[in-house]
Predict the structure of Cell division inhibitor SulA.
Amino acid sequence: MLHTNSDTPILLSNTTQRSNVTIVRTADDINANLELLKIIRLCNKRHGWTLLIAPENIPNKAVLDSCSIDSSKLLVIKQKHISNLQYVLNAASSNGNFAAIITWTNIATAAQLDDMKLNLVDTELFCFSKVQGKDMCTIGSMIS
């Protein structure tokens, strides 16, 4: 069972905070999934929904349940169902029902978010980004 700090999450990855936008940089999918669980758990305590824009297999409901995350406050929209990301982000942030919006790895970049000029007054945006060149296997060098 995964235990996370329920008060203030300590992010394992490199993060950059700018006014209601947090860029979460992770080296691999394992760290990204752990960070996602921490962020969802943090957002789950807030008043309002959490919107997650993610690929097909993220998140796993069994994992959410095992981490005591209330999935009834989580709205997941699959990336393939979105034709206009800026419209979805603006609609969710101005709606008033969302406490947080999370975009999964490489759905949007920091530059794209700046260009969108989102109205994030009461909504926090977490944008996952993969650190390039960090996802490589080092087992071969360890064996020799």
Notes: The mean pLDDT is 78.
